């Protein structure tokens, strides 16, 4: 599956689309059919984010196994926080805490991704 790890472009595409779908779905009223559909598509994108991330991880982790491991964890955590925002919205509870955790884990994940040596290297 070399095409997945030859560049970071596919990985970037999947998480950018994922974040847009997350913002769209979180703005819809819980329980509506439209929201359920957007969430279903988003879940397909979670899988694509993980597959493309995993392909890069397996190929390059030896370059810096500690940082690659942390990137992996924060990538998964970011997805987890999106799901927590949905869960709280559906229970009618406050989502503020999980929005903050989502944004913090997203920023850490993006920082690590851009710091790691493959693809774009803003923080090298
Ligand atoms: C919403 C979740 C995620 C976001 C926002 C995200 C963000 C990023 C960004 C900004 C980059 C840098 C791209 C570049 O330098 O060209 C990147 C690369 C990478 N991501 Fe993710 N990612 C996410 C999920 C994941 C997951 C779940 C994994 C592991 C299964 C993963 C593994 C990787 C790897 C291994 C790289 C290559 C790092 C490098 O050497 O530059 N990511 N990601």
Automatic annotation (TrEMBL):
<keyword id="KW-1133">Transmembrane helix</keyword>
<keyword id="KW-1003">Cell membrane</keyword>
<dbReference type="InterPro" id="IPR010899">
    <property type="entry name" value="UPF0344"/>
</dbReference>
<keyword id="KW-0472">Membrane</keyword>
<comment type="similarity">
    <text>Belongs to the UPF0344 family.</text>
</comment>
<feature type="transmembrane region" description="Helical">
    <location>
        <begin position="98"/>
        <end position="118"/>
    </location>
</feature>
<feature type="transmembrane region" description="Helical">
    <location>
        <begin position="66"/>
        <end position="86"/>
    </location>
</feature>
<feature type="transmembrane region" description="Helical">
    <location>
        <begin position="40"/>
        <end position="60"/>
    </location>
</feature>
<dbReference type="Pfam" id="PF07457">
    <property type="entry name" value="DUF1516"/>
</dbReference>
<keyword id="KW-0812">Transmembrane</keyword>
<feature type="transmembrane region" description="Helical">
    <location>
        <begin position="12"/>
        <end position="28"/>
    </location>
</feature>
<protein>
    <recommendedName>
        <fullName>UPF0344 protein QT716_15560</fullName>
    </recommendedName>
</protein>
């Amino acid at each position: 599956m070399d095409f997945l790890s030859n560049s970071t472009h596919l990985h970037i595409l999947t998480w950018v689309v994922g974040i847009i779908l997350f913002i769209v779905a979180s703005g819809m009223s819980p329980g509506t059919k439209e929201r359920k559909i957007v969430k279903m598509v988003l879940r397909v994108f979670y899988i694509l984010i993980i597959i493309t991330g995993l392909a890069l991880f397996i190929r390059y982790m030896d370059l810096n196994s500690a940082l690659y491991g942390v990137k992996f964890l924060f990538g998964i955590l970011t997805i987890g926080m999106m799901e927590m925002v949905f869960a709280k919205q559906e229970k009618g509870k406050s989502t503020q805490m999980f929005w903050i955790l989502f944004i913090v884990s997203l920023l850490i994940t993006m920082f690590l991704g851009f710091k790691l040596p493959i693809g774009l290297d803003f923080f090298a």
